[in-house]
Amino acid sequence: MSFRAKVFLSIAATAVLSVWIVAAVVSTLVTRSFERRDAQRTASLVNQFQREFYRRGVEVARRIDAVADSDSIQRLALNLAGHADTSPYFSEAQTLAQEQSLDFLELVGPDATIISSAEWPARFGYKEDWLTATPDWKSQGVFLKKEDLADGEALGLITVRTVKAGEGLLYVAGGRRLDQEFLDSLPGAEGMRVRLYRVPGEAAPVDSDATVTTLPLRGRDNQLLATLLIENSRADLVALKKYIQGTAAIVGAAGVLLGLLLSFWTASRVTRPLRSLASSVREVAVGNWDTRATISSSDEIGQLARDFNGMTEQLVEQRDRMIQAERVAAWRELARRLAHELKNPLFPLQITIENLQRARDASPEQFDEVFRESTSTLLTELGHLKTIIGRFSDFAKMPAPQLEPVNVNQIAREVIQLFEAQLQAPGRPAVKATLQLAADAGEAPADPEQLRRALHNLVLNALDAMPHGGELVFRTSRHDNKVAIEISDDGEGLTPEECDRLFTPYYTTKQHGTGLGLAIVQSVVSDHKGTITVHSELGKGTTFRIELKA
Amino acid sequence: MKLPVWAWLALSSVAIPLANAATRPHYGGSLTVELSSAWTTLNESSALSIPITETLVRLNARGGIGPALAVAWQHDADFKRWRFSLRPKVTFHDGEPLNGASAAPSLLAALKKKYGDVSIQTGGQAIVIQSSEAMPDLLADLGAPRAAVFRQSEANPLIGTGPFRVIAWEPGRRLVVAAFDDYWGSRPYLDSIAIEFGSGHARADIFDIPAGPARRILPEGIATWSSSPRTLVAITVAITAVNAQAPGLLQALALVIDRAPIVNVLAQRKGEAAFSLLPQWLSGYAFLFQSAPDVPRAKQLVTQLQIGQLGLGPISLSYPANDAFLRSVAERIALNARDAGMAIQPTPGPLNNALNNPGGTLRLVEWQLESTDAAAELQRFGEPTQLDSSKPEALYQAERSLLDHVIPLVHLRETFGFTPRVHIQGSDPFALHLEDAWVQH
Asked: pLDDT tens digits for B23-55?
């Protein structure tokens, strides 16, 4: 993640978090305020309901008293006392209920038989045993009762009066509905809704966007008859919270935008010297050792630039010293190798010439024969010298590679084919060559001659590592857009120190090596922008791995 | 046709002496009548008899047949050809003389409803009625109100030969009739009768007191007259493929209905509990159908029928929307049905008093008797076979099969109140004959 992105995220996160915290706190305070208000309104409404309930109860009692005292009820009571037919009074309750504006009114005889019913006229003749079960109705007052109707049930504020009818009693039971119309008459605040729910035991259907307070409504025997649902609409609160959230979102978005601008400004201020320093570092990395960072401030970044400049100056000095030392070491090594290489052929040359001199002096008759043998030897040794000089010359004159698509598997087969006769030569310890070539190895841009030469050197090196025979494995593979060629032997193996110096020119572990074979391999691989690595374990063998860009 | 002796005795017991023997009848004067029901046609069946038309023969209250517009008749041996001699010197209200040609059209229209290939030949005062099928009950058919002889004109919808002629007719609102001075029989005492429909304020000389729960306190001096039970209130249902449970449903409903409260309270005792189509006074065997409510048995039937599990919802019981009495009966039946676990929903509907109920729902209807001929009335109920009123066994069997689709509830009487100035000299238990009424000046 870039520094600019980090700065932007920091500023944006700070702005958003701050706004969110403020919005959350304000929302919480607003919610609590609304809850307090709703609680007060609900308490007020409950009080009003209870007052109205009481007032209507008094009114119902007064009207039922009026019914009980009416002439028609007195006449009915007299008829009942005389066991007269009550069928003419069938519709009396309806008439009286209409006169007294009652929703419920039943006239019930001493045997609990309904004489007349205003709310359900067809129920005459049926029993209302609950009326005769209570001996004293005067003390019962007004109570809630669920009334059966032809089309269902209704809740009523009911009271009962008795009128003496001979030996028995005439029951006058009636009242008014407790229904939504009653509840609608309560003065409620805006956003409040009062409902009557008459199905106890089931979850009341409430508006999900409202707070609900329930008030159980119980009957004479304390049984639950209905539930009063007081709903306080949360629409205002929801709207206000939405407004707060909307405002917070806008402020947060503005904060993010501001953070973006600030991050650009800050990043540009802070990263400009860093980018300059980074550019200097990249210049040094590509070899421009004389590059210097611009020191534009005296802060930590300025100090960093100063330290960087000091470091590059020291590096240049150390590099120069190292080059000088390496040059000296190289000349010394070259001198040592030349002395060593040239010393070996020169000694036979000297011996041969001395033999010629001794033969001429001691036995002239054998001189011709000795001469022929000696000249042959001289020519051989001179050939060795020429070979040595030629190899040095070749190493010095390594040409630039001519790249073309090369099938690495084909190159590998060709190299092995060159060595087939040598591998199977009689009298030589057997070396088994194994090809493990990947079908998808494909082609790589390379100079075929130089690549073939490098692989040739590696095979030679492997054969030299297996003087007692073994297995030579030629392996190719392709991955990550690279082609790999591995040549392994199961010879003696190399020590880590030998591995470190393996590619140094003129370094060899063999008695007759020039020390240029692996140097040439490394030179070829390097010219192909590839890499060569060696992995070796003592007693197990050595593997050289060349990787070329595909 | 003759009523049994016991039926005659029953009728006689309900008849009331309407005329004060000490008061002599007077000619002249007008009578006002108020009826709570509204006549929409001039053929309404009512216990209030205002004869505008007449039939060839007359059925009396005892079931006997006497001459009316026809003075003599003969038939062949197999009852396929009847010859009637019309009463001479009879004219219609518009002055047209009654003869075979003027009487034939209305007679033919009435008889074709029962006898498809009936034909009528006329010649002077003679009428010959022929059919390929036997017509043993032709006299009863011709004595029914629907076989009245009448004519129509643009100005007058009903031109008869009866003692009253139509002066003004506003269907559903008002009917005014006047005495027909050229009536072949005795002229009515009254000069005119004005009938207002749908008021029921009891301010007229004669007013009906309909059956119903409304308690009415009659003014002092008002006398009342009630007919024999002549209106059947019943529940009908059609048995259709959709309503295959109908027989069991009706049986369960019949078992759970308590008729006594309906008669005593809702009808205010203006009738009798009905278990049959024909009232006891007419059939003589109605008591055989009587039964008591049996709620446990009804519950058992409901359980067996699985009525509640049919998913039909409440069963609709329709009643005429403007009939308070039938509404209260429907509500009571719904309450009774609930005791057996049946859900019945009283539903106001159009006025349709046909006992034939092609719909699938229950319907509460009122069915008025038109005559005192039990066989003719059963055939009106829908009995397809020819019946002989003198064979009560056949009538009983016919009625029994008709009751598969009907639950009789109550036979209502028609009750009228009248002021002291009204005197009705002659009446029978079946009808109040205003042609014999007179008013005290």
From this structure: 678 899 999 999 888 888 887 778 888 899 999
A457 and A528: one domain? yes
Statement to judge: residues B237 and B202 lie in one domain: no
Q: Shortest Cα distance from A94 to chain B (angstroms)? A: 10
Pairing mode, if any, of strands B315-320 and B362-368?
Answer: parallel
Contact list in A for residue B346 (CB cut-off 8 A) is: 150
* CATH number of the domain bearing residue B123: 3.90.76.10
Its pTM stands at: 0.61
pLDDT for position B16: 40
For A87, which of B264, B332, B334 is closest by C-beta distance?
A: B264
Task: Please indicate, yes or no, whether residues B276 and B422 belong to a single structural domain of this protein.
Answer: no
Give the DSSP letter string of A369-425: HHHHHHHHHHHHHHHHHHHHHHHHHHHHTPPPP--EEEEHHHHHHHHHHHTHHHHT-
pLDDT confidence of B67, banded at 50, 70, 90? very high
- Asked if B264's CB is within 8 angstroms of A124's CB, the reply is no
Q: How many domains does chain B have?
A: 3
Q: Which of B120, B122, B131 is nearest to B79 (CA)?
A: B131
- Low-confidence residues of chain A, pLDDT below 70? 188, 199-208, 330, 337, 340-341, 395, 397-398, 505-507, 509-515
Residues A413-424 have pLDDT tens digits of 988 888 887 777
Beta bridge partners of A107: A116, A172
* Cross-chain Cβ contact A87/B331 below 8 Å: no
**pLDDT tens figures, A433-462:** 899 999 888 888 998 888 888 898 888 888
Q: How many Å lie between the alpha carbon of B269 and the closest alpha carbon of chain A?
A: 9
B247 and B371 belong to one structural domain: yes
Candidate from A87, A121, A125 with C-beta closest to B268? A87
Q: Which residues of A touch B313 (CB under 8 A)?
A: none
Number of domains comprising chain A:
3
With residues binned 3-state (H G I as helix, E B as strand, rest as coil), the percentages for chain A, rounded to 5, are 55, 20, 25
Domain that holds residue A250: 1-288
B268 touches chain A (CB under 8 A): yes
